[in-house]
């Protein structure tokens, strides 16, 4: 199958790299991300930079020092810039210091096939009887205390070399048009209080409309190696419990694939709507508007999810939340909360899980916020 993917909310898939403060030159409402590969090839730049490094590493003096270097070498900053974005200030009006970079190859952003496969895999588990088997296993209180990380998955889905999903191949996407990549602020909102959170800044793939007929989308190829799967099944080289005929059928038939994705999506959307409904506004107009905007967003994609013929929605990438990446659904039992606490989810209250949600500010207005990671996927052939 060939799939077209387009963002309906900002998407972020991190490379693990950061754009540091010394890599940016801030001029009022514009921030220039400098191209140091080009700068290093400029005569005398390295000498000037090293001579001023102590000043450059001071946030309050960095921009003045960089401006002096550009002026001394008679360089136009636009000629040595990777991209420009509108300067973002945090709530204390401090200048942005660090930005998480989108995954890239030769400075061209793309969606890794592994990210897409992971998102599809979670939805396929949600939509099939595998999910019921996992849920029953987690619901068996006698066994939960003996569970170790990955034990359930290896038992039900099989180790990687035994899993049906090893026969699912997903290519990396085509490259994202750089015009739709920009830096945005991510805010963590506590659902039950107004506790301040440290904002984060990311390179995001934005759901902007094109103005020149160019599509803001990428394409990937998804293939299920059904012949190899059948052969492995005959030779018992695959976990028998995950040899589910419905899953193989879903991965080889377009209509069943789309229907399964929509079924799983309805559940994720329902959970997100339930979570947003618990956002307390404390008579704060911004929080009231944010809640309204998020509710409208999920109402819209829920309606579209039913109406679209050859398309479905999918949530992928970073900062997309616990429920989009797991088989869990509310309410969590006390036993499950204690189990999760052993793997990094500390101080969980089963009546208040999750306690936060993340939003992206597309502009300073609370009318222009969106959740992270939602894309529309269209099956082309």
UniProtKB/TrEMBL annotation:
InterPro entries: CRISPR-assoc_Csm5 (IPR010173), RAMP_III_fam (IPR005537). One of its GO terms (biological process) is defense response to virus. One of its GO terms (molecular function) is RNA binding. It comes from the Bacteria. Residues 5-320 form the CRISPR type III-associated protein domain. Keywords: Antiviral defense, RNA-binding. This subunit might be involved in maturation of a crRNA intermediate to its mature form. Belongs to the CRISPR-associated Csm5 family. PANTHER family: CRISPR SYSTEM CMS PROTEIN CSM5. This is CRISPR system Cms protein Csm5. It comes from Fervidobacterium nodosum (strain ATCC 35602 / DSM 5306 / Rt17-B1).
């Amino acid at each position: 199958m060939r799939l077209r993917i387009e963002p309906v909310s900002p998407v972020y898939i991190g490379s693990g790299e950061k754009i540091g403060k010394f890599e940016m030159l801030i001029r009022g409402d514009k921030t220039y991300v400098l191209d140091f590969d080009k700068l290093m090839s400029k005569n005398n730049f390295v000498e000037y930079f090293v001579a001023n490094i102590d000043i450059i590493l001071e946030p309050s003096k960095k921009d003045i020092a960089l401006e002096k270097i550009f002026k001394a070498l008679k360089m136009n900053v636009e000629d040595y810039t990777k991209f420009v974005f509108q300067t973002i200030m945090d709530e204390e009006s401090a200048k942005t210091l660090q930005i998480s970079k989108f995954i890239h190859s030769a400075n061209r952003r793309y969606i890794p096939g592994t990210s897409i496969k992971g998102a599809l895999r979670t939805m396929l588990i949600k939509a099939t009887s595998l999910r019921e088997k996992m849920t029953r296993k987690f619901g068996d209180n006698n066994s939960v205390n003996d569970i170790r990380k990955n034990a359930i998955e290896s038992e039900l889905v099989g180790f990687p070399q035994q899993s049906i999903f090893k026969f699912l191949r997903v290519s990396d996407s085509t490259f994202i048009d750089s015009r739709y990549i920009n830096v945005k602020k991510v805010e963590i909102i506590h659902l039950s209080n107004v506790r301040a959170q440290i904002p984060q800044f990311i390179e995001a793939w934005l759901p902007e409309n094109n103005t020149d007929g160019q599509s803001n989308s990428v394409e990937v190829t998804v293939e299920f190696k059904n012949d190899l799967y059948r052969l492995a099944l005959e030779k018992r080289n695959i976990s028998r419990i995950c040899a589910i005929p419905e899953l193989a059928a879903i991965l080889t038939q377009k209509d069943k694939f789309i229907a399964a994705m929509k079924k799983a999506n309805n559940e994720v959307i329902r959970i997100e709507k339930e979570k947003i409904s618990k956002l307390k506004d404390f008579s704060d107009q911004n929080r009231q508007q944010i809640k309204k905007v998020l509710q409208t967003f999920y109402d819209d994609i829920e309606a579209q999810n039913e109406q679209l013929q050859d398309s479905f929605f999918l949530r992928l990438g970073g900062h997309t939340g616990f429920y989009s990446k797991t088989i869990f659904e509310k309410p969590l039992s006390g036993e499950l909360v204690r189990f999760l606490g052993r793997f990094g989810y500390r101080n969980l209250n089963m009546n208040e899980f999750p306690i936060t949600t993340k939003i992206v500010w597309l502009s300073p207005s609370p009318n222009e916020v969106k959740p992270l990671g939602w894309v529309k996927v269209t099956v082309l052939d």
